[in-house]
Amino acid sequence: MAKTHIADHETLERVAVALESMGASTVPIFDAETGRYTNASLAAWLAKMRDGKNYGVSIPKGSATACTKTGANAGIANPKPGIIGRAAIDPYVNHGAFVFFEVNGGVDADGTPYVTAIDGDGRFSRKDDTWIMTPVLYTLETETDDAVNFTVSDTQNQGMKSQPSAYLPNGAKRPYMLYAKYALSVDADGKPRSVSGAPVKTRSVSHDGGVSLMNTAATGDALKVGADDWYVKAMFLLKYATKNSQSVFAGCTGHTEQCNPTLAETNTTRVVVKKATADAIPVGSAMMFGTHTGSSTDRGTNYNYDIFDGAKVLKKVAVDDSNTALYFDVAKPFNVETTYYLSTAPWNTGACDMVEGDGSPTSCTSGREPFVVQGIELGLGMYEVLGNVLIQYTGSGAVVWINPDTKNEKSGDLASGALSCGAFPGPATEGWNYGLYCKTVNGFMMQQGTGASTSVGICDGNYKVADTVTGLREWLSLGILWNWGNAGLWCVSGNYGAADAWWYIGSRRSANGRSRGEAA
Do strands 270-274 and 286-290 pair parallel, antiparallel, or not at all (unpaired)? Predict the structure, then answer.
């Protein structure tokens, strides 16, 4: 028989608070032989925290951005996001459907999640694969002529169906949901990770590349999927009651500085630049630096990142009234010439680790910083490609497809069993357009309608190529360093081929790629 012991109440800090508030006696059971908590005990533990309430939000179909909280959600104030040193004020903490915990763990080949450590149990580390564990949620979505009425609960109340990816391919319901806390990075062996303090994996990440990188045919791992995207959108809508996500969290979307150094140095870990440029660069952000032996200033050109790529800014020190030194977290010193080139880059993971609750390191709306919602760090200055969603341009329009089981995901083709989510919205010509509202189709929440802008409707840009185009395009979400108002939770760039990769395209791991694809 496997040896087991009960997690220590004294060290499980958030666990203890949750148990006390719910009056629960059930605690997670750790199996020392497997090195995992038992899924049955975790499911039972989360079940003890249920409140059974229906939290709703009415999403207007017109140009208005404000939504209306309904059901048990009515009357709950919007959270006030925090920054480092000033915790968020979040009335949703420990409310049934909004409960979450940071854990270490992963996913087995059949799609079953597992947990090896819980924050506070003495085993947990953000240097190991880190996930946000939540209960399986249930949802009801109805429409009127004027609104989409969206409701979520931790209990399957009347009329509700399970959330996206709640059921495994064999028909078993997941004991809980896992969402990657961090954007995708890789270790020294190229293994995909969800860990703190790592440069994000870009330059070779695409929908098609993700099939091999994640080994989707043989593992439960996948690139970010529609169910991961759905959870963040659902939580944001319910908590903040607005279609304009950037009004609350701008993300790193206006962070574009590029420059030559003002001082040549040898054997250093700093780059001296004009003070005005340095003033715009947050400590903690990441940059790339190259010998710049050619004329291109594109961050994708190798000579613009051949000294370092994604190095963290540790501090800024004034050199004189006109110049400031940026110090970088690098493995070894480097030389600097005034012809070299320094550029902003997507942030490293873990930038929001010291933020208590939803929020950003120093400003949620500066356009230069990532943010965290429900423990999930987002908006690092790069697109996040979805591993199970493709846009098919037919020559007379475009259709969005989602694949429930990433084991079947293909490079360069639609997977067998892929489900249509309807038309990719936008006019017949190529360009940015803006949806009016959102709704969920086959487990995927996306923009609907056209004719809005960066200030009305959904507010996030939706880039579509001309209807006359044919072929598959990948789904690039969130926005990049210079997307400004085109970015946000509902942003999507739909003009890149399924195999296209570049310095501003990344993703994250998913434990929810293997699914039956139908709600119950």
Answer: unpaired
Q: What is the tens place of the pLDDT at every residue in 95-150?
A: 999 999 999 999 999 999 999 999 999 999 999 999 999 999 999 999 999 999 99
CA distance 166 to 457: 30
Residues 6+ apart with CB under 8 A from 410: 211
Do the beta carbons of residue 65 and residue 459 sit within 8 Å? yes
Query: Could you count the other beta carbons within 10 Å of the beta carbon of residue 274?
Result: 15
Instruction: Of 408, 485, 480, 488, give the one whose Cα is nearest residue 446.
Output: 488
Give pLDDT tens digits for 338-385.
999 999 999 999 999 999 999 999 999 999 999 999 999 999 999 999
From residue 274, give the alpha-carbon distance in Å to each of 240, 269, 296, 505. 39, 17, 21, 29
- Nearest alpha carbon to residue 137 among 210, 231, 206: 231
- At 136 the three-state DSSP class reads coil
Using an 8 Å Cβ cutoff, are 424 and 400 in contact? yes
Among 242, 238, 338, 236, smallest CA distance to 291 is for 338
Which of 461, 467, 413, 422 has its CA nearest to residue 441?
422
N- to C-terminal Cα separation, the chain: 35
Burial class (CB in 10 A: 0-12, 13-18, 19+), 305: buried
- At position 18, the amino acid (one-letter code) is A
Mean pLDDT score across all residues of the chain: 94
Q: How far apart are CA 445 and CA 225, in angstroms?
A: 11
Rounded Cα–Cα distance for residues 446 and 435 (Å): 9
Sign of CA dihedral 105, 109, 110, 111: positive
Strands 419-423 and 398-402 turn out to be antiparallel
